[in-house]
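Worked example 2:
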Amino acid sequence: LNTKVKEGAAIKTSYVEIGTFRVRSNGKETQVTRANTAQKIKVAFTINPNPLAFKGMHDIYMRVMDPAGNLIIGEGGMFIANNQEYQYTYKTALEYNGEAKSYVVDWANRAPFEAGTYTVILYADGGTMGRGTFSLK
């Protein structure tokens, strides 16, 4: 029963949209589609309403997989989700009050991006929250 309640109280996304950007020297961001100019990604998502979810701060873990399927190591910490231990690329905390709300998470890659399709998986509350992909030429 505790497992079912925990699953029901987890936050989930209705969609995940990912954009790739180049940051100019003046700080202005320009959306790009080429791997050699991309410096960061913006992951936009909406969390579904869930009256059972804990109201307050939730840790959000993001894993970014390169076109070869390898995890891009960012901060390098570990977390547990779906009864397994994973390493994450980026971690942040978001305020959630049980209602549908949109968020944007920025992440800058330390190494140059390669051409191909990347996968981004978001985790929260011990489970998968959502996933999305983006492609670079």
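The radius of gyration is 16 Å. The chain has one helix and ten strands.
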